[in-house]
C-alpha cells in the first residue's frame, strides 16, 4: 500500500523510505489517522525535518493525495482552482449547497475539508441543528460573527474512517488514489461525498460535524508563497535570490578547508625554549589570507544576464571576507591582455596578470561559447599559462550543464581549466576542488 | 499505560494546535518530539507545563557543550565504591583496636555493583512509566551526543555502566520525551529520523496577545496593544537579533507595575527598550530609525 509514496516524496527532495510507511501504518493502528487532514499531519511529523522541508512537503502531499500539481511560483489557491480534483468536488458540492459561493469561499471550504483533522472535530451535529441555523435569523448571526470571535466552522461532511478496519482503510485509500490517477470523470472522491464519507451520504447536508480550532488549510496556504518554507534551489543559475546561498557555499567551504599544518619554525622556537624538548606545534591555515582574481566575460548578449549577479556576488564576497579581490574583464576568451573596466577600454597585459602571487584563487566566469577560430593557439597558450601559474583556478559557466557536450569550445576550455556550473552547488564544488589543489609545484 | 490523551495547553501555557497535535502524535507513537524554532517561542515550556498540568514527573537534562551520554544516562561512582570497599578492612582494624563504633556504607553493598550506579535523568525517566523527559537545547551538544542516543531511542533501553543492569521500557510506558533545538547546528539525519519533528512558527500578533494574557492576566488591554505594535514594528526592522516572546513578556512585566496610562506613555517613549534589544548594533539601528530617546513622542505608533 502506498508503495509509491516514498518515491514521490523523494522526488521533491524529502527523505522518505520504507520506514516512513511503517510509521504511517503504526500511526493508523494507534488511531491517529481518521481523516485526510490527519494523514497530512502525521506525515508532516514523520517526513518534515526542517522548516524548509515544509514547502516541498505540502507540494508533494497535494500532488500525491489530491492530484493537485503546484507549479513553481503558483499559489495554492490558483493550483487548486485549476485542478480536476477541485472541479469534480465543486460540481458535487454545488449540487448540494443551496447557494452560490465565489471562488475564494469555495477554495476555503475545500481546504477546510482537506485539512480537517480529527482534533478539529468537536462534535457531530445533527441535521436538525444545521437546518435551524439556516433559518432567517442568520443575518443577525452574521453580524455577531464579524465583531466577535471567528465563526465556528461547520462542515457538512467529513471523511470518517474510524469505523473501518485498518486493512479496509488502506485498501480504500490506495484504490481511490489509483482511480484518481487514471480516471476520466466521476467515480472517486477523497473528499466530499461518494464512497468515503458516511455523513451526508446520499442526501444533502442531513448531518454534519462541528469543528473548532485552526484550519490547517490556512497554514498550507501560507507555506506556498513563503520563501522561508522552501529551500533555495541550489542548482538554479545564480540570481539575486540565491546569491547568499552561493556566498555561503564559498565561505563555508573555505572555513571547512582549514586544515592543521605542522608549523616547523614555531616548533623549533618553542622546542628551544623548553630546552630541547620538541613538541609539534600545529597551526591552522584558517588565517590564510584569501586572495581572489575574478575574470568575467562580459562581451556579447550571451553573458549579459549573468554579469550583474556575478558582480554582486563578488562585491559581497569582497566586503565579507576576501579583501584582496581584483576583477578583470574579457570577451569570449583571453589573448594577451585583460581589461580593467567593464567597457573594456583600459587593459593590462597577461604578463602583468601573471606577476600576481601564485596564492591567488582565480575564477573565470563565462559561457566559453565562441566561434572555434577565436580559440586559437595564442589564446590557448594564455589560458594555459594562467592555469599553470594559478593552481587554484576554476571556470564557472552559466550555460546549462546539458549543453556542454554540444559546444566545442566548452569542451576545449574544460580540458584547460576545471569547469563548474554557475549555481550555488556548482560554486561549492568548484571551491572544494580548488582547496584540494596545492599552490606549490 | 502512558498518558496519550490529547493535551491542548493549560491556563498558563497557550499551546499552538499544530504543536499540540504533533506532541500527541509523538506520545501515541512512543517517539521523542523534536521541537525547533526561534528562541523564546516556548519550546522548553511545553513539557514543563504539560508535566505540571497533568501532575507527571519531569526529568530535565539541559545540554551543554560538554554533555555526554554518561551524564544523561548513568555513571558509576568509583569514589564511593572505593571508599566502601575499604570500609570492611577499616572496620576489621577498628575491631582489633577495640573500638565499638563502626563505619557504615550507608546500606550500600560493595558486592552489588548496581548500588554505585548514579542514574541520570534519562535512566530515571525510563524506569518510571508515565514520566516526562526534557532534553533542552540539544544543538549545543557535541556532535557525538545525539548519535549516542540513537540506540536508546529506537530500542527503548539503556545499559547501566559496570553493573550491566538493563533499563528497558515498553512502547506503552515510554516517557514523553521532548527535545528542543535552536538550530545552531544541524542534527544528524539518523537522529532526526527517530523523532517526530515540529517547527514552531513565530506567533502572530493575535496569538501573541493571547500568550501575554496567559502570563499577565491583569495587564491593561491598551498597554498590551501599544506594546505589541512596538514589538512587531521592531521585528520588522530586520534586526540582527529580533526580539522574541520571552523579551516582550519581560518588558510587560516591568510595565505591569506602572499605572496603565503611564505605561502607555513609557512604551511609546520606548522606555526600557533594553529588555527587547540585545545588541549594541541593533540599539544603534533602532535609535537611528525610530529614535528611541526622550524626544520621541511615540506618534508613529498611534
From TrEMBL, chain A:
| Source organism superkingdom | Bacteria
- Give start-end positions of Basic and acidic residues composition bias: 130-144
Region (Disordered), start-end ranges: 130-149
Record protein name field:
VWA containing CoxE family protein
Upper lineage ranks? Bacteria, Pseudomonadati, Bacteroidota, Cytophagia, Cytophagales
UniProtKB/TrEMBL annotation, chain B:
- Cross-referenced Gene3D superfamilies: P-loop containing nucleotide triphosphate hydrolases
Identify the domain of life: Bacteria
Query: Residue ranges of the ATPase dynein-related AAA domain?
Result: 32-191
Return the protein name: MoxR-like ATPase
Q: Which organism is it from?
A: Marivirga lumbricoides
Amino acid at each position: 500500500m502506498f508503495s509509491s509514496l516514498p518515491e514521490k516524496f523523494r522526488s521533491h527532495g524529502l527523505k522518505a523510505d520504507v520506514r516512513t510507511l511503517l510509521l504511517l501504518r503504526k500511526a493508523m493502528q494507534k488511531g491517529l489517522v481518521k481523516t485526510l487532514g490527519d494523514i497530512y499531519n502525521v506525515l508532516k511529523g514523520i517526513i518534515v525535518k526542517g522548516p524548509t522541508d515544509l514547502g516541498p512537503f505540502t507540494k508533494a502531499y497535494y500532488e500525491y493525495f489530491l492530484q493537485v500539481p503546484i507549479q513553481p511560483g503558483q499559489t495554492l489557491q490558483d493550483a487548486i482552482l485549476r485542478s480536476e480534483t477541485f472541479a469534480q468536488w465543486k460540481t458535487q458540492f454545488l449540487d448540494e449547497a443551496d447557494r452560490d459561493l465565489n471562488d475564494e469561499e469555495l477554495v476555503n471550504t475545500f481546504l477546510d475539508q482537506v485539512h480537517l483533522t480529527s482534533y478539529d472535530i468537536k462534535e457531530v451535529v445533527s441535521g436538525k441543528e444545521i437546518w435551524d441555523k439556516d433559518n432567517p435569523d442568520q443575518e443577525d448571526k452574521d453580524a455577531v460573527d464579524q465583531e466577535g470571535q471567528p465563526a465556528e466552522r461547520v462542515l457538512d461532511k467529513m471523511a470518517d474512517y474510524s469505523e473501518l478496519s485498518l486493512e479496509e482503510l488502506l485498501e480504500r485509500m490506495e484504490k481511490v488514489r489509483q482511480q484518481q490517477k487514471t480516471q476520466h470523470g466521476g467515480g472517486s472522491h477523497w473528499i466530499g461525498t461518494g464512497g468515503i464519507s458516511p455523513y451526508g451520504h446520499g442526501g444533502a447536508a442531513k448531518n454534519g460535524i462541528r469543528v473548532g480550532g485552526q484550519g490547517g488549510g490556512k497554514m498550507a496556504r501560507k507555506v506556498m508563497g513563503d520563501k522561508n518554507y522552501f529551500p533555495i534551489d541550489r542548482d538554479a543559475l545564480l540570481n539575486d535570490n540565491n546569491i547568499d546561498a552561493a556566498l555561503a557555499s564559498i565561505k563555508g567551504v573555505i572555513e571547512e578547508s582549514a586544515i592543521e599544518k605542522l608549523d616547523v619554525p614555531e616548533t623549533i622556537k618553542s622546542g628551544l625554549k623548553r630546552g630541547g624538548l620538541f613538541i609539534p606545534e600545529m597551526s591552522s591555515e584558517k588565517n590564510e589570507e584569501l586572495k581572489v582574481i575574478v575574470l568575467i566575460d562580459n562581451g556579447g548578449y550571451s553573458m549579459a544576464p549573468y554579469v550583474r549577479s556575478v558582480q554582486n556576488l563578488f562585491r559581497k564576497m569582497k566586503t565579507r571576507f576576501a579583501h584582496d579581490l581584483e576583477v578583470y574583464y574579457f570577451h569570449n576568451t583571453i589573448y594577451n591582455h585583460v581589461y580593467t573596466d567593464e567597457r573594456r577600454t583600459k587593459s593590462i597585459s597577461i604578463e602583468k596578470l601573471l606577476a600576481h602571487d601564485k596564492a591567488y584563487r582565480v575564477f573565470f566566469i563565462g559561457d566559453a561559447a565562441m566561434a572555434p577560430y577565436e580559440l586559437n593557439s595564442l589564446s590557448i597558450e594564455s589560458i594555459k599559462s594562467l592555469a599553470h601559474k594559478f593552481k587554484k583556478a576554476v571556470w564557472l559557466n552559466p550555460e546549462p550543464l546539458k549543453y556542454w557536450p554540444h559546444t566545442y569550445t566548452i569542451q576545449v576550455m574544460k580540458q584547460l581549466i576545471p569547469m563548474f556550473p554557475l549555481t550555488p552547488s556548482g560554486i561549492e564544488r568548484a571551491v572544494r576542488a580548488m582547496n584540494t589543489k596545492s599552490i606549490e609545484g | 499505560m502512558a498518558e496519550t490523551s490529547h493535551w491542548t495547553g493549560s491556563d498558563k501555557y497557550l499551546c499552538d494546535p499544530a504543536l499540540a497535535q504533533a506532541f500527541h502524535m509523538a506520545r501515541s507513537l512512543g517517539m521523542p518530539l523534536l521541537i525547533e524554532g526561534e528562541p523564546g517561542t516556548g519550546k522548553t515550556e511545553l513539557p514543563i507545563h504539560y508535566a505540571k498540568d497533568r501532575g507527571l514527573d519531569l526529568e530535565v537534562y539541559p545540554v551543554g557543550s560538554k554533555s555526554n551520554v554518561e551524564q544523561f544516562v548513568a555513571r558509576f561512582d568509583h569514589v564511593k565504591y572505593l571508599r566502601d570497599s575499604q570500609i570492611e578492612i577499616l572496620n576489621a582494624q577498628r575491631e582489633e583496636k577495640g573500638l565499638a563504633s563502626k563505619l557504615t556504607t550507608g546500606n550500600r553493598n560493595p558486592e552489588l555493583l548496581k548500588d554505585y550506579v548514579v542514574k541520570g535523568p534519562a535512566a530515571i525517566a525510563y524506569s518510571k512509566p508515565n514520566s516526562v523527559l526534557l532534553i533542552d537545547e540539544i544543538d549545543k551538544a557535541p556532535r557525538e551526543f545525539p548519535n549516542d542516543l540513537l540506540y536508546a531511542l529506537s530500542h527503548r533501553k539503556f545499559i547501566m555502566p559496570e553493573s550491566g543492569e538493563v533499563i528497558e521500557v515498553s512502547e506503552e510506558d515510554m516517557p514523553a520525551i521532548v527535545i528542543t533545538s535552536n538550530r545552531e547546528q544541524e542534527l544528524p539525519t539518523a537522529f532526526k529520523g527517530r523523532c517526530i519533528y515540529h517547527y514552531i512558527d513565530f506567533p502572530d500578533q493575535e496569538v501573541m496577545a493571547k500568550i501575554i494574557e496567559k502570563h499577565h492576566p491583569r495587564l491593561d488591554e491598551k498597554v498590551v496593544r501599544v506594546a505589541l505594535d512596538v514589538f512587531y514594528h521592531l521585528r520588522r526592522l530586520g534586526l540582527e537579533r529580533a526580539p522574541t516572546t520571552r523579551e516582550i513578556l519581560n518588558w510587560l512585566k516591568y510595565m505591569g507595575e506602572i499605572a496603565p496610562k503611564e505605561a502607555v506613555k513609557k512604551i511609546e517613549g520606548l522606555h526600557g527598550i533594553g529588555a527587547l534589544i540585545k545588541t549594541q548594533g541593533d540599539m544603534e539601528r533602532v535609535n537611528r530609525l525610530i529614535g528611541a530617546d526622550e524626544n520621541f513622542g511615540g506618534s508613529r505608533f498611534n
